Inverse folding.
């Protein structure tokens, strides 16, 4: 695939590597930042050493976590880095890929979306249930954008709406036409991953024991197709697309387990 490479005989997974994707990425960033800290003697011979090495390690770990979230950088939209992937063959990570190099996208506002080395993706930016809808661009035409979107849909460090809108911006920059990018956005908004932050009332009300509340809306091709037909004939804004999709999505989540589809 153009712009995408994976070693034929890539290094095997390290023994015991079973952490979820978000944990693996954060752990990799933390280890990298702590190594940099040690190389600069931040935790040894630096004024921070007076705090104690344990406290210093916590500070460098917190810094690493902050670095995983989008930053800001002046300049026009652009991708930075190269997409290099390793196919993971652990049973728990079947059909998933690990990033072997940092890869990022800077959007029009200067916000930098990093997919860090060690992050895991699964190629589901475009929901599988909606991929056969006519008019949607093939994933090979927005491969770079999908890598960034896929990582952030799993890391869930930003709101799901911001992540989906980033995909729209990145796919335009990668070469999709405005109509194609909006068709893609409509499909991802309709059936892509959504999640709640820990501060959400959903946690306080009925999900206090959950570590992560994430779901995909239950929408069918027949329900979404009229929206795509309308989109072809108009030039709607993203807000207008969201309103149309919301109107045809009777089961948006997150409580999908009580949203039983009515038999016709």
């Amino acid at each position: 695939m153009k712009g995408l490479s994976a070693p034929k005989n890539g290094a095997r997974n390290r023994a015991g590597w079973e952490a979820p994707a978000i944990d693996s990425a954060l752990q990799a960033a933390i280890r990298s930042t702590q190594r940099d800290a040690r190389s600069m003697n931040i935790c040894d011979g630096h004024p921070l050493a007076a705090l104690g090495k344990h406290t210093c390690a916590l500070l460098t770990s917190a810094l690493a976590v902050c670095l995983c979230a989008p930053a800001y950088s002046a300049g026009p939209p652009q991708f930075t880095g190269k997409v290099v992937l390793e196919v993971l063959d652990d049973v728990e990570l079947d059909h998933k890929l690990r990033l072997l190099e940092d890869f990022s996208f800077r959007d029009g506002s200067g916000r930098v979306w990093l997919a860090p080395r060690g992050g895991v993706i699964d190629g589901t930016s475009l929901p599988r249930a909606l991929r056969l809808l006519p008019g949607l661009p093939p994933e090979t035409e927005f491969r770079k954008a999908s890598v960034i979107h896929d990582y952030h849909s799993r890391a869930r460090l930003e709101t799901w709406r911001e992540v989906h809108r980033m995909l729209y911006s990145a796919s335009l920059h990668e070469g999709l036409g405005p109509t194609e990018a909006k068709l893609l956005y409509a499909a991802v908004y309709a059936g892509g991953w959504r999640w709640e932050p820990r501060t959400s009332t959903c946690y306080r009300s009925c999900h206090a024991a959950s570590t992560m509340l994430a779901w995909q809306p239950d929408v069918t091709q027949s329900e979404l197709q009229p929206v795509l037909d309308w989109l072809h004939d108009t030039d709607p804004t993203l807000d207008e697309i969201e309103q149309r999709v919301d109107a045809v999505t009777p089961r948006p989540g997150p409580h999908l387990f009580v949203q039983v589809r009515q038999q016709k």
